[in-house]
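Support reply, case 0932

Customer input (verbatim):
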Amino acid sequence: MHDQTALRTEGIAEQLRCHPRVKAHVDEGYRGLANPFPRQVIAPPSKPKDNAPLGDHHAWRNDRRQQSYHRICVYYANAEYKQWAPLRRSTGDREDFPGVRAR
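Our regenerated output:
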């Protein structure tokens, strides 16, 4: 599901209104959510224009790296969960698997 679709259909904005102390680090897809909830939703910084000073580009890169640093643990946790997906699909009775012996 696209991030903006989830935003509209799953009631994320309403949950943020109901729980003002909740904070979230989000990716590019939720940048629009950071505008109405600037103190709750932390989105990656916008990329500076091509003609912006070089210092702005360096600051932007550092800010993105810092934000990624805070979110990487979530990506790793999700990836680890997804690695077990093949095993979830093949659960069932042992009799269904001739190579598995009961102990």
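We compared this against your earlier run and they match. Two observations from our side: The mean pLDDT is 78. The longest helix spans residues 54-83. Please reopen the case if you see a mismatch on your end.
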